[in-house]
Every structure is written in C-alpha cells, then in structure tokens.
Amino acid sequence: MRIADLPLDPEIQDVFQTAGFDELYPSQVEAAPLACEGNSVVCAVPTASGKTLVAQMALLQQAMQGRKGIYIVPLRALASEKHRELEELAEPLGLNVRLAMGDLDGPTPDLGDFDVLVCTSEKADSLLRSRSHWLDKLGCVVADEVHLLHDPSRGPTLEVLLTRFRHLMPDAQIVALSATVENSVEIAEWLDAEHVKSDWRPVDLKEGVLHDGEIWFTDDSTREVPAKTDQLDALVQDTLDEGGQIITFVNSRKRAESVAERIGPLVQEHLDADNVQELTDAAGRLRAGRTDPGQERLAEMIGQGSAFHHAGLDNDDRTLVEDRFLDQHLRFVAATPTLAAGLNMPARRVVILDLDRYESNRGRVPIPVLEYKQMAGRAGRPQYDPYGEAVTVADTMDRREEIQFRYLLADPEAIESKLAQDWALRVHILATIASGYASTEQGVHEFVKRTFYAQQSESWTIEHRVEKTLDFLREESFVEEDDGLEATRFGSLTSELYIDPASAVILRQGVEAAPVDPHPMQLLHTVCATPDMNNLYMRRSDVGIEERAVELEDKVLVPYHERASFEEYCSEVKTAMLLHDWIEEKTNEQLYERYGAYSGDVNYRVQDTRWLLQAAQDLARLFNDDAERPIHKLSLRVRHGAKQQLLPLLELEGLGRYRARQLYKHGVKDKADLTEAEAQQLVNIRGLGPKIVERIKRQLGEDVGEMPEPDREQPEMEGQMHLGHYDE
pTM of the full predicted structure? Predict the structure, then answer.
C-alpha cells in the first residue's frame, strides 16, 4: 500500500511523499488506515518498524480538521526528537508543534495557536491537573512506548493519564505505540481500541549465542568469529572487520566504563583520518571547562572511537556520544539499558553481555525477557545494514541452551499494571480529588475502576488499597469530608506541587521544626528524607558518612527512626553532604572523588532539590512563615552552586558561578560595583570578554558603545562553567 492510497488529507500525503515516504511497511498497512480514519488503535510492532509514522498521520489528520493533538513520550530526550520530526512535517501544512518539558509545577503553556503538543507523561499529567482550556479541543492522544505501563516509576502516571483522557474526552482518538508484548490485546481492550500486531522489521534480526568461537542463531545458522581470548573482543573484531558498529549492553556503570576502555585500542585500529579528526574534535569539546574524572575518561576513549553511555553522564555528554555514533565516527559504545529505552541509535550488532543485574533487596536477578528484546531491537540500521545481529555470550554449552530458551526463543512477559504501589495510589488519588475529578469516596472508586490496574485485579483488593490510601490522606489532613470529599489547602497545594503526599508530610514536619536561622544541612537533609528524592547509594569505600550521620542525629529536622533504616538515613545524609559541598563551590573532581558522583548525578539531584525546596517554600507559607526566607536563599544557592556572597551577582543573566567568582575575586561584589567598573577592567577578567560584559552592562541599563578588547587573550565561554576553574 502507498501513502496515496490512504484516507489521508491530500496536503498531508504531499508532505509525507516530499519527506521520502511513499510505500508503507507491512507493519503499517493495517494500522495506518485505521489511524487516518480517526480510530483508536494499539500498534504493537518491533523497534524501527514504522510505529511513529502511524502516530504522525493521526495527529496531522486531526490537526488539519481543527482538533489538537498530544504526543506523550517517556523520556525528555525522546520528546525533543519527536518534536523535531513532527515540526518538519507540520511546518509545510501551516501547523504549529509545541514542546512542553518545563517544571512540573510551573505555569501551563498557552496552546491557543498550537496544534500538537509533545511532552512527557509527567508534564501531560500536570497539565491535566490544571484543567487547561485547550483540552476541550483535543482530538488525538498518542502514547509512545505504552508497554512502559509495567515500569514501576513511569507506568502509574501513564496509566492514570490515559484513564483520565478516556474519561474526560471519550471521543478522542488514542494511538498507543507498543513493543511486541504478550498481552497487547488486553491493552487494546482497556483502551477500547483496534489491535494491530506485527513481527515484521525493515531489517531482519538474527538472535544468537556465542560459545567457543561460534555464534548459534535461532534460525539454525551459525557463524564463526575470529579466535580471541575474550569473546567480546572476538565479536568486536568481527564487526569492525565488516565495517559495522557495535553496542554492548552491561549491567552497571562501572562495567560500561571498563569495557569501553578495554575495547578502545581495538577500535582505534579501524579508524580512518576523517574519524580521527571528528573524534579528536569531540573529545576536545568534552574536555572544555571540565574537571569530572569520568568525563576525562570518556574524552580519552572517544579519541579511540569507543565510548560509554549511562545515566551518570549529563545530557550534553550523552547527546555527544549518541550523535557521534549516529554519524558513524564512534564505532563502539558500552551502555547500561537506559540506551534501549526508545532512543534511535541502532547498530549492526548488539551484544547483551549481562543477562542479570543487582537489586538492593534481592541480590542478582535475571533481567526480564522484554528488557532483553528491547536491547536486541537496537540491532540493524535500516539505511545501512542488510540485517542486524543481537548476540549474547555463554561459557558452556548448557548455558548457551539455557539462554536460547529463556531469552531468544521466549515471548516477552505480559504487561502488568504498577498502579497498586502505595506511592502511586497516594499521588493519583489525591490528584483525582484535588482536581475535582472525584468529589466522593464512590467517585474515587469509580475512577480507579477505569484503570488498567482494575482490569487486571480482583475488585476486593482494589477497594482495600483505595480505602487504605484514603485513610492516609484523611489522617494527614490532605482531604476532609463534609458533604463529600474535598482537598484541604494542604492537599491542593501538594497536588499542584506534583509531589508525593508522603514527601509533603516530611516537608511539613521539617518546616514546622525549622529554627529561625536553620543550617543549610538541616534543610538539605529534610529534602533528602522525602521519597521523591533519589538519594546516592552507600558504598563500601565511603569514608566519614556514617560518623557524620551519627553527629547529625539530634540536629536533623526530620528524625529517621520511625520511617527509615540507619543505612537509608546514611544515604540521605550522604546526598545532603553532596549538595552542601555543591553550594560551597567544591569542584566536580572533588564531588566525584568524595561521593562517586558524576556531573550528571549532581545535575539531576540539583534539579530535584530545587523542585523540592520550592515545594518546602510554598508549604512554609502554610505552616511556618519564618522558614520561607531561608529556604528561598538556599534554593538560589542550589540553583547556582554558589556561596551566599555571590547571590547579588548571580541575579544577572549570563554570569553563572564561575564568572561571578572571578568578579568577586577582583573586588566586584554586586551590581553597584559592576556599574562603577570600567568596561576595560571587566573584559580583562578571565572568562568574561567583550560579549559577556556588553550583556551585563545592558542589564544594568547602561548605554553600551563599542566594547574594548581584553589586554590578553580571553576564552569566550558560554553558559555556566565548572568550578575547577576556581583554582586558577
């Protein structure tokens, strides 16, 4: 079937044909007509088999008919990618595509003139809670990676979101894109949608196990690989000899780094001059202004054509690795499974080196079949490869056969709802009441009965869990009953702040206990004591953490004895210490050496801390006005990673903590000092330069003439710099 044969607006057909789409994939032939006609559909097909095209057709068709659409993705990086793709298609049609990834408790974007919104599940949920006016015009909801309903952290929000959309807008079209899973029919029944399932891929996928120098594939074919002492080395050598790229999935950050480092010299032998130049430039950009030893290691490996990819890297570093792999300059990447979650980064061969992982409460456990299939699905580049290979390794013949039957020949597990978790029910039942979607206990039960959880569970277990959650919300004064259920001011604020009610209880306790002038560590620990904070793990190599935790026991605002173990309390203290060192302007290298924290780890925890401090500040207005100001000051310090003395300078855009510290060192301590300072004096300060000084002077309301050049060569540095420069 061709694009021209679809019941699709002719202008949309032209746009797709201009973009190079003409003939539909077999996996699209059944789903595309349904989507174009406005039917809800669950499309369960393998990775890179054309699911996105079906969703784009549905969104554009609805938009051309005057209805808005929303494209929901699980990851921020995916949101940017989908937004870019949709924008290119929508622009010739005169349609506007909006990307919403801001703060969860931030203002709702005005979509008055926008036709399609791309956002994460959490942002979409936040928008629904605020009952945005544009929801009345919503015609199409796309849920990407809907199999993530099984994910303990992301699944409940996606499930509640789809439940709410179906309840509020029963006529809206839902297009759910899924991996091939056992019970995709059940998901379609829940969504009252058509079901389309296909195993077709644009590039054939061969799955095999390497043992004793030979890959045994599930189609009964075999392939010999070069003789090497290490099986991964053999697979890498074989892939590179054929001009391919390889991704290896491992179960830990440390392993990803050690594997990438070991493979680097092998890859380097296969680089051409163009590769070397591009990778040298990439390594140089990575090193610019950095002091994180992990980033330095990554830069060294990238120069050899190898890299690691895990959640400890910040967004810029991960994007650099992905881009250099996509343009085929990087030849090898060792990654943790985060890379398998929907990112478009395929390779000729994928090696799943580890089929188990460590879980804190269970020790080493086998990974699910679905996770294996998601990693294997990265194999095969449609534009470059006639086939893709997903290979695991086995030390014995028995292990080879076990892997084949347990993973290669097995079907992915059925998707199960994760809404029954205590935190998920607390968050979403409170939101249901606070947003006015239910005003009675019966209304709450009716809402929960519409969920995927209810479709899969016995009614008595659901009722018991809902009652238990409502009891908690009543006891902690989130809701009150008169003629019906109603959120208190505390409950409404908690829902608006998008935090777990259990976190709100802890923040309330900390705010009420705060002295007039609390120490930053007291406030930071309070934030780290909440379930919304992702605390650092304790390591055997950690020195002084337990001692510091004992010292703080009678000083913390939220004692741990009734809510956490001592080890959990130590993790809270460790994370609070990291954040305290951050605001005391410790370097990235110091943070890495003291806590094992990469720049990405620091960035993510800074973001979470700012969010939770904002929540604490808002709660302080309810429970202790005196605590609001110190929390606000601390929030500013966390935002900038700076001491109190730099805050007057950091009110200006374009400075950042590095430039502010340089100014302070030169006696420029506030806006008045900046106004008095001559332009020549300022441009001579390291890290400023004419462009930055001009920007500062304009913010101060000064007439800006031609900027002088520095007396010595200055690096032009954009954005906030790393604190390693403080020692220069």
Answer: 0.90
